[in-house]
């Protein structure tokens, strides 16, 4: 009875349990959570998971990046050095990788530059005669003249090497040239004479690979220059027997290529051979003379080094560590450190030095009117590139027949289907380059050509997939690029371009996405994310994405946008081609570009190591206190209008509210002005932008929103008022003039404390202009006009202006500076009391008064 009760109870429990499970299953099947997220994750879990993955990815990239960056800078240095003498630097750097073979002269000079920096030019010159090998006969002559060579004596630096007595070392270098550089060490093997093997001194000196004697499998045991250098060139002798004994004892540790070695790879790239040999560390005995010691020995191919027991009688010679050499290895002079190869900062200094040198040459060339380096066109035509005939027709109609250099280079690189990071100057046609990367042999065609292929497959589907996603930082730029894409798609009816940008109704976007063709999406990151997160089915449409393009990549990968970009990239398929375009690429951006690009991406640099600005644009700066800035801007505009009848000017201000104030003031002064900034409604912005594109004799007062990508033709002057946030901002603002290879002018107006920024652009061809003489009458007029402006506009400008400077590192930490600035600005706009808006901020910052006005809490 009891047992049957238990049995019943058990079955009841089991039944309940089963029932509960069943209910749970039904519940699950019936949903309750979004089914678009696998693993039963809800939206937030899914989001967090992706965020975590993104963080891990970034960490991984950070680890890999440093090495990558160093390698790239080094290759830039190499390519720069190899091209420095070439007048066609730009053309070459664009069309092909820069690793053309160096002549012996260039190579030695390059190496000397890298390793000795100073005084390298006296290492070798034409007068030293040609570089040549040591012939056996020569070596025999040297030996017969001078007797066997004592390697240790040579190394210890106490004696000259014999060949030197004949005036010239057989390599063509004079001893006196070699000695200070310690290259003499390499010439000193007896084995050279006895075996008669030839030494190619270039290979010894260039050092990326085995030294020449190693080609015959003997002499210096196949040590690379870098190995020797790292070991302080020490050599050592031991007998054949000792060598075999040591080898047999397996004391050796077969070394892999050291990272230093790897980095020091100019010559290994030049001659295309890799450094296969490692090195061996051996415990060795030098015949009982100095006991056991740790030494360095021969190459991995097992060839023993020969010779020299001190008397030079055909015994094996091995290379040993400095520790092994005792007094024979005492260095008389200190070796020049290789720090700059190991230290990233020093590397950038080196690059900087090359840049300024290159700049100087370009300036000199410009002065002599040599060549037309600033031409943006390449000799190639669009119809030579297998672009679809209808696209060529559209291009021709738009006036594009010849490609620009960046278009040519980008299309060529895309042939391999790789991701690409493209750096090209402003106004050189990057837009068409990414809209129309024609990749003939590759199945995944970029941009428009990609869509053309994909749309054939998609024809049967009701809702076509999104094939190309173009991300940009600003709304106006999105509209501009969509318009440009539509021009190229003129004869392709079925392909649609849609813009997704802020400032428009979300619902309108949705309607367009559902009813109109939209294989190409041009979007700003914020609005795109909105769609991804809030519009069901949108993410699924992105799963067919073939190509991702980031225009103004440096800005998009900047801190302000980076998180959004990471989130977007996480929602895109992995199998796609990504192209990043920018006029400036700071180090940090290169680093984080791998968030988007595959590791093996191509780097296309049509700028080279020279400045990112155009030679034809005259750049200058004026230093004057803040109080005078409004008057100086007015003065500069008046002057320019008088000189250029068809003027078209852009004035950049630091914030939207400052833009508004500047606009109000100049309008009060009866100038022909328009304004665009983020505080204006989108419709207004678009209208003004379109007007300014067509206009002449108009001044556009604007903020950062117009700094990048905007293509306003024939802008004659760009004025930047106040310090830019960084070099990229300066270059991009300036890039609104001098487009398509035309000329232009750029003036930057800084307060004295803002001069620090000049350091950031010191390699650019910018010169100082003296502060203009201001007419007292105009001064009075400006003060009157300022007084007529609505105080709320002034207060808002004042507040935003202080906020901007507070965010800048140099002032943000320094209350005194900020108070001074506030005072100056207060004076310039004629405020008599601290604006209410700013009071709170000032209290937070701990300021007691501004311009003598007490701040009450
Ligand atoms: N192949 C071409 N032939 C002639 N003109 C061209 C060609 N490609 C582009 N252009 C013109 O060059 C100008 C600048 O192009 P675009 O706006 O693409 O420059 P960008 O390099 O993207 O500049 P930014 O860095 O400022 O964004 C445009 O007016 C465009 O019409």
UniProtKB/TrEMBL annotation:
Residues 411-603 form the Helicase ATP-binding domain. SUPFAM superfamilies: P-loop containing nucleoside triphosphate hydrolases (SSF52540). It catalyses: ATP + H2O = ADP + phosphate + H(+). InterPro entries: DEAD/DEAH_box_helicase_dom, Helicase_ATP-bd, Helicase_C-like, P-loop_NTPase, RNA_helicase_DEAD_Q_motif. Residues 256-317 are annotated as: Disordered. A motif (Q motif) lies at residues 380-408. Gene3D superfamilies: P-loop containing nucleotide triphosphate hydrolases. Residues 636-786 form the Helicase C-terminal domain. Its EC number is 3.6.4.13. Keywords: ATP-binding, Helicase, Hydrolase, Nucleotide-binding, RNA-binding. It comes from the Eukaryota. One of its GO terms (molecular function) is RNA binding. Residues 380-408 form the DEAD-box RNA helicase Q domain. Pfam families: DEAD, Helicase_C. The Q motif is unique to and characteristic of the DEAD box family of RNA helicases and controls ATP binding and hydrolysis. RNA helicase. Belongs to the DEAD box helicase family. This is ATP-dependent RNA helicase. It comes from Centaurea solstitialis (yellow star-thistle).
């Amino acid at each position: 009875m009891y047992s049957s009760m238990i049995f019943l109870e058990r079955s009841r429990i089991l039944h309940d349990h089963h029932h509960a499970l069943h209910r749970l299953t039904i519940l699950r099947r019936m949903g309750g959570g979004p089914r678009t997220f696998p693993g039963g994750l809800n939206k937030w879990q899914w989001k967090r998971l992706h965020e975590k993955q993104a963080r891990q990815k970034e960490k991984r990239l950070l680890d890999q990046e440093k090495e990558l960056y160093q390698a790239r800078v080094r290759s830039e240095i190499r390519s720069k050095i190899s091209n420095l003498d070439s007048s066609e630097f730009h053309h070459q750097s664009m069309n092909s990788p820069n690793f053309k073979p160096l002549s012996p002269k260039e190579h030695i000079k390059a190496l000397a530059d890298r390793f000795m920096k100073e005084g390298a030019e006296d290492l070798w010159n034409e007068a030293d005669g040609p570089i040549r090998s040591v012939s056996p006969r020569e070596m025999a002559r040297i030996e017969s003249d001078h007797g066997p060579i004592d390697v240790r004596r040579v190394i210890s630096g106490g004696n000259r090497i014999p060949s030197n007595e004949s005036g010239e070392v057989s390599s063509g270098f004079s001893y006196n040239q070699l000695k200070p550089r310690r290259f003499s060490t390499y010439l000193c093997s007896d084995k050279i004479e006895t075996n008669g093997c030839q030494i190619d001194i270039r290979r010894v000196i260039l050092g990326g690979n085995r030294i020449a004697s190693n080609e015959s499998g003997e002499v210096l045991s196949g040590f690379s220059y870098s190995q020797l250098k790292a070991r302080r060139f020490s050599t050592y002798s031991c007998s054949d027997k000792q060598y075999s004994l040591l080898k047999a004892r397996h004391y050796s540790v077969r070394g892999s290529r050291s990272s230093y070695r790897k980095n020091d790879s100019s010559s290994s790239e030049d001659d295309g051979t890799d450094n296969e040999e490692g090195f061996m560390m051996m415990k060795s005995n030098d015949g009982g003379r100095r006991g056991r010691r740790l030494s360095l020995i021969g190459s991995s191919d097992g060839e023993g080094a020969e010779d020299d027991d001190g008397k030079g009688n055909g015994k094996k010679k091995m290379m040993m560590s400095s520790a092994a050499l005792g007094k024979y290895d005492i260095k008389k002079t200190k070796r020049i450190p290789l720090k700059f190869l190991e230290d990233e900062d020093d590397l950038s200094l080196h690059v900087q030095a090359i840049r300024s040198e290159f700049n100087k040459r370009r300036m000199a060339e410009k002065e002599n009117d040599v060549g037309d380096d600033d031409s943006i066109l390449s000799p190639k035509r669009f119809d030579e590139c297998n672009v679809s005939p209808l696209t060529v027709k559209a291009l021709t109609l738009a006036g594009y027949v010849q490609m620009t250099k960046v278009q040519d280079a980008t299309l060529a690189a895309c042939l391999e289907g790789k991701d690409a990071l493209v750096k090209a100057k402003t106004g050189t046609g990057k837009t068409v380059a990414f809209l129309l990367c024609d990749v003939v042999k590759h199945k995944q065609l970029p941009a428009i050509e990609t869509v053309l292929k994909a749309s054939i497959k998609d024809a049967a589907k009701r809702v076509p997939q999104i094939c190309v996603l173009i991300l940009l930082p600003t709304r106006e730029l999105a509209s501009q690029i969509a318009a440009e894409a539509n021009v190229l798609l003129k004869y392709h009816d079925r392909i649609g371009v849609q813009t997704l940008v802020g400032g428009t109704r979300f619902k309108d976007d949705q309607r367009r996405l559902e009813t109109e063709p939209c294989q190409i999406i041009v979007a700003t990151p914020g609005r795109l994310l909105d769609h991804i997160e809030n519009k069901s089915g949108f993410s699924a449409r992105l799963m067919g994405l073939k190509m991702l393009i980031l225009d103004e990549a440096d800005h998009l990968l900047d801190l302000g946008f980076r998180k959004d970009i990471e989130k977007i990239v996480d929602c895109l398929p992995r199998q796609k081609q990504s192209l990043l375009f920018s006029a400036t690429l700071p180090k940090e951006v290169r680093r984080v570009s791998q968030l988007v690009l595959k590791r093996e991406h191509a780097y296309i640099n049509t700028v080279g190591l020279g400045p990112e600005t155009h030679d034809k644009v005259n750049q200058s700066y004026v230093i004057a206190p803040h109080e005078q800035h409004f008057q100086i801007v007015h003065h500069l505009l008046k002057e320019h209008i008088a000189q250029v009848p068809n003027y078209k000017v852009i004035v950049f201000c630091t914030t939207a509210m400052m833009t508004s104030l500047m606009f109000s003031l100049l309008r009060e002064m009866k100038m022909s002005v328009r304004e665009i900034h983020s505080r204006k409604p989108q419709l207004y912005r678009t209208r003004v932008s379109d007007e300014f594109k067509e206009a002449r004799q108009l001044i556009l007062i604007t903020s950062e929103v117009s700094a990048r990508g905007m293509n306003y033709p024939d802008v004659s002057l760009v004025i930047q008022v106040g310090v830019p946030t960084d070099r990229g901002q300066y270059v991009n603002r300036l890039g609104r003039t001098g487009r398509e290879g035309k000329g232009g002018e750029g003036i930057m107006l800084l307060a004295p404390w803002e001069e620090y920024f000049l350091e950031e652009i010191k390699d650019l061809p910018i010169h100082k202009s003296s502060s203009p003489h201001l007419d007292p009458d105009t001064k009075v007029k400006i003060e009157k006009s300022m007084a007529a402006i609505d105080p709320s506009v002034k207060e808002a400008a004042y507040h935003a202006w202080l906020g901007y400077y507070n965010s800048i590192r140099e002032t943000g930490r320094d209350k005194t500076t900020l108070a001074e600035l506030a005072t100056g600005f207060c004076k310039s706009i004629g405020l008599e009391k601290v604006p209410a808006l700013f009071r709170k901020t000032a209290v937070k910052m701990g300021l007691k008064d501004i311009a003598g006005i007490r701040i009450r809490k």
